[in-house]
Amino acid sequence: MNDTDSYNNSKLSSIRLNNENESKDDEGLSIGGEEEKNFKRSHKRNQSNDIGIHYVDDDDGVEFQLDQRYLNKVHEELEKLNIATDVINKLEVQLDEARKQFRLTQQKWSQKLDELSKKYGSVISKSRPYYEAKLQERTLREEAQNAAIRFERANTLLAVAKEQVKFTQESLSRQKVAEPACLEVLNHHIQRIAEAEKERTSAENCHKEISIKMTEMSQKIKQMERDHNRAIKKSRYYFEQRMEFTKILEGQKNLINKLEKEVKQKKADYTSSLKNLERISESIHEERSLSSIKRSSRATSPVSSSPSTNRNDYDSSKNYDFNSFTNDCMSEAYASESSGIPPDPSELAINEDDLDSIDGGSSFNGDNGVILLAQQLIGEEEKEKSSNNVGYKFRPEQTDIRYTTMPEGIRPLPSSSGYGSDASLSSFDDTVELSKMLRSHSQLIHDIDNGAIRLKNILHQRSVSDVQNESVC
C-alpha cells in the first residue's frame, strides 16, 4: 500500500509539473505571438522586395501592394532623373570651364594686342580703314554668294513649275469635259510659277545691288593701297593677330551658347520627370483610398445583412415547428383510428391557445400549416364516409362539415359580393385556392376545431357500432 501511494503521489506531482510547464509555454507563446507576427511581416516584405513586389503601409495600418506598372513607371522616371542629374552636372562643369577659358583667352589676347598696338603706334591708325574695308568686302562677297544661290533655286523651281503647267494643259486638252480637279491642279502650278518668278526677280535684284557695292568697295580698297602702302605692310601682323583672336573668341562663345542650351534642355527633362513622379504618387494615393473604402464597405456589409438572415432563419424554424406539430396531431388521429380504440377528446382536440402560441411570430408561415391540416381532416372524413358500409344516417347539421367563411349568425357585408352564399360554398370543392384567399386566420382555426369534434364523434360512433356487430356475431 505504501508503495502504491508513493507511486501515485509521484505520478500526480509529475502531472502537476507538466501542466505548469504547459501553462508557461502557453504564456510564452501568447507573449511572443505579436513578435512572431512582426517577424513574419518583415520576412514577407524582405522576400517581396527580393522578388520585385513592394508593400506600403496604408493610412489605417493595412499593407497595400503596389501595382507592377506603377513600379515600372517609377523606376523609369527615377532612371531619367539620375541620368538628367549626371548630365546636368557634367554640362555645368563644362560650361564653367568654357566660360573660364573664354575669360582667360580674352585677357591673354587683349594684353598681346595692346603690346602690338604700342609697338606700331600710328601705323595701325593709318592702315585701319583699309582692313575694315577688306572685312566689309568679305561680308559683301558672302551676301552675293547667298543671293546667287537664291537666284539659282528660284530659277529651278520656275522651270519645274512651267513643265508641270505644260503637262496639265496637255491632259486638259485630251479631256472632252474639263474636270474640276485638273483645273485646280493647273491653278496651283500657275501660282507656283508666279511665286518662283517673284523669288528669282528678288534674288536677281539683290545680287545686282551687292555687286555694285562690291565694285565700289574694291575701288576704294585699291585707292587705299596706293595711298598707305607702307603702313599697311607694317601693320599687317597686328591685324592678322586681331583676326585670329576674333575667330577664337567667336568659337568659344558658340561653345558656351551650345552648353547653355543643353543645360536648359536637361533641366526641362528633370522637371518633367519630377512632375511625372508626382502624378504617379497621386494615382497610388487614389488607389489606396479606394482600397480602404472597399475594405470598410466589406467590413460593414455582413452587419447590415445579418438582421434579414436571422429573420429568415427564425421564420423557417417556426414554420418547421408548426408543420411538425400538425403532422404529430394527424399521426395520432390515424393511429387511434387504425387500432379501433376511441380517441381521447383531449388528445384529438386542437386548442386555439396552442395554435396561437405556435403561430405567434409569423402568421404567413402558419397559414400554410392550418390549411394543410384542414385539407387532411376533410380528406380523411370523406374517406370514412365512402368506406363506411354501415347504413347509419346522420342529421344534416352533423354531416355538414363544409367550411364557412364567416361565423354563423353574422351576415356578409354588401360589398363582399356573395361571400356567404351557397354558390361560394359549392365552389370550394372545385377551387381550393379561392377558399385560401377568402378565409382568415381565426375563422380557419374555428372551423378546424368544429371539424375535429365532428370527426371525433364519427370515429366514436363507428367504434361502438363495430363492438355491437361483434357481439351480435
Please characterize this protein's 3D structure.
There is one protein chain. The chain is mostly helical and 473 residues long. The protein has two domains: 71-286, Helix Hairpins (Orthogonal Bundle), CATH 1.10.287; 319-385 and 395-408 and 417-465, no CATH class. Helices cover 84% and strands 1% of the residues. It is built from 13 helices and two strands, in the order H-E-E-H-H-H-H-H-H-H-H-H-H-H-H. A two-stranded antiparallel ribbon has the order 1-2. Helix 2 runs antiparallel to helix 6 (236-339) and helix 6 packs parallel to helix 9. Residues 27-33, 43-59, 303-311, 333-370 and 413-430 have low confidence and may be disordered.
| Total helical elements | 13
Strand content: under 5%
Number of domains: 2
Rough shape? Answer: elongated
Mean pLDDT: 70
CATH architecture of the largest domain: Orthogonal Bundle
Give the helix proportion (percent range).
Answer: over 70%
Alpha-carbon distance between the termini?
81 Å
In CATH, the topology of the largest domain is named Helix Hairpins
- Give the uncertain stretches in residue-range form: 27-33, 43-59, 303-311, 333-370, 413-430
Count of DSSP strands: 2
Given helix and strand content, the structural type is mainly alpha
Could you name the CATH class of the largest domain? Mainly Alpha
Strand order of the largest sheet: 1-2
Biased composition (Low complexity): 290-309
Protein name: SH3 domain-binding protein 5-like
Biased composition (Polar residues): 1-20
Keywords: Coiled coil
